[in-house]
Amino acid sequence: MVIICPHCQKEHSIDESRLPPNVTKVRCKYCKEQFDIISPKPSAAAAQPPPPAQKSTEPRKIAVTLSKGGVGKTTTAVNLAAGLALAGFKVLLVDTDTQGQASFMLGVKPKAGLTEFVNNELSLDEIMTQARDRLWLLAGGRSLAGLKRVIDRKDFGGEMTLKEKLSTIDNKFDYVVVDTSPGWDPLIVNVLFYVREVLTPVSLEVMTLQGLVEFLKSMSSIQKYNKDVALKYILPTFHDQRVKKSNGILTKLEELYGNHVCTPIRYNVRLSEAPAYGQTIYEFAPGSPGAQDYRELIRKVANNPKLFT
Length: 309
Ligand SMILES: Nc1ncnc2c1ncn2[C@@H]1O[C@H](COP(=O)(O)OP(=O)(O)O)[C@@H](O)[C@H]1O
Ligand SMILES: [Mg+2]
Prior knowledge:
This protein has 309 residues and is α/β, with parallel strands linked by helices. The chain has two domains: 2-47, no CATH class; 60-302, P-loop containing nucleotide triphosphate hydrolases (Rossmann fold, 3-Layer(aba) Sandwich), CATH 3.40.50. The protein is built from 13 helices and eleven strands. It has a seven-stranded mixed β-sheet, sandwiched between helices. Strands 1-2 form a two-stranded antiparallel ribbon. It has a two-stranded antiparallel sheet with strand order 3-4. Helix 2 crosses helix 13. The longest helix has 18 residues, at 206-223. Mean pLDDT is 89; it is low at 39-55. It binds adenosine-5'-diphosphate and magnesium ion (MG). Magnesium ion is lined by residues 73-74, 97, 101.
C-alpha cells in the first residue's frame, strides 16, 4: 500500500505482508514525523490512486521575503537551503533578486540561471548549478530585469509565469527555497503565486515591524487569488540581547504572531564574514551562534527536533 506522511506529504510504499501485526505507527524517512499507518481519517490525497512511479509529490515551497532590504533574507535563504541539504533533503534554491547574491554566498559562478530557464534558452543542465551535495541553485542576477519585462508584457497570466515553469521540475526536490529582492514587483508577485509558505525575516528594529505589517497587507491582496499561500514563519534576525529595544520588539512579535515566530537569529559577525569566502555558516563557522541559530531554524522548518543532535 502507499501511505502519505500527513506532515510533509511524501509517499511511502509499504509491503503490508512484511509488517508485524502489532505495528500501528511509522516514522517518515524524510521529515521523521511519526504517524498512524491505519489512519481512521485517510486524507483526501491518500484516498486517490498513487501517481505514476516516476512522479514524486510536490515539494515544500518556501519564499524568504519582506519588502525591506538588509533584514537577512539572502543570508536566511542560503543557510536555510544549505542546512536542509545537510539534513539530507534535496533542495532547490531559486534566486529572484537582480543582485544575484545567493551565488556569491555559495561561492559559485553560474553562467545562466532563472531568466534562461523561464525563457527556455538552454538545457536544464546548463541552467542549474549544483552548489553542494543535494543543493542546486537557479541563479538570479541582472538578467532578471529582462524577465520582469517579459512578465509585464503578457496580456494575462503574467503572475503565473514562474509557477508554470518551476512546476515542470520541482517534483525532483523535497524543498524549493526562494530568495527575493526588496520592494514589491512583478517577480515577487510571481513568487507568491508559486510558493505555499512564506518566511519573513524581521530585523529587530522598529521600522521593520512596520515593514512586516505593510508586507502582510500586500500579501493578503495576493491571498484573494492564491488561497494556498500563507505566512508560516516569522524569523527575528539581528537579535542582540543586550539591546532593550531588540527584546521589546521580540516580545511584541510573539504577542502578535504567536507560534509563527521562530527562535531568533542572533547578531553574529560570522554571518556577515562567511559570504566573502563563498561559504555557508555551517562551513565557515560551524560552532558559531549563527550556525547554531540556523540549525534551530532547520529543525523548526523540517519539524524534526532531533536534526543535527
Ligand atoms: N544575524 C546576522 N548577524 C550579523 N550580520 C548579518 C546577520 N544576518 C545578515 N547579516 C549581514 O547583513 C547584511 C544584510 O543581510 P542580507 O541577508 O543580504 O539581507 P537582505 O537579503 O534582506 O538584503 C549582509 O551583509 C549579511 O552578511
Ligand atoms: Mg538579499
